[in-house]
Amino acid sequence: MDYQILQAKSELLRRMSAEDFARLKPQLASVFLELRAPLE
Q1: Distance from the first to the final alpha carbon of the chain
Q2: How far apart are CA 7 and CA 17, in angstroms?
Q3: pLDDT tens, position by position, 1-40
Q4: Distances in Å between the alpha carbon of 12 and those of 9, 16, 35?
Q5: Among 6, 28, 31, 38, which is most exposed with the fewest C-beta within 10 angstroms?
Q6: Among positive and negative, which fits the CA dihedral 35, 16, 9, 24?
Q7: 3-state secondary structure the chain
Q8: What is the distance between the alpha carbons of residues 13 and 35, in angstroms, rounded to a whole number?
Q9: Nearest CA among 14, 13, 5 for reference residue 31
């Protein structure tokens, strides 16, 4: 995956809470949280 795309997703995650993601798309929430883990 392109680094800039990963960076953009990381920025989005910092602005939205896990609860927001869980309400919108439970599956996406878990995927994003998995992606965020190695970035922190």
Answers
A1: 17
A2: 17
A3: 588 888 888 887 777 777 776 677 767 767 778 887 776 5
A4: 5, 6, 12
A5: 38
A6: positive
A7: CCHHHHHHHHHHHHHCCHHHHHHHCHHHHHHHHHHHHHHC
A8: 10
A9: 13
- Rounded CA separation 37/27 (Å): 16
Amino acid making up residue 4: Q
Could you identify the residue written with the tokens 């939205």?
Answer: 16
Query: The tokens 């995927």 sit on which residue?
Result: 31
Tokens of 33: 């949280």
CA distances from 31 to 13, 22 (A): 11, 11
Q: Which two tokens stand for residue 13?
A: 């995650």
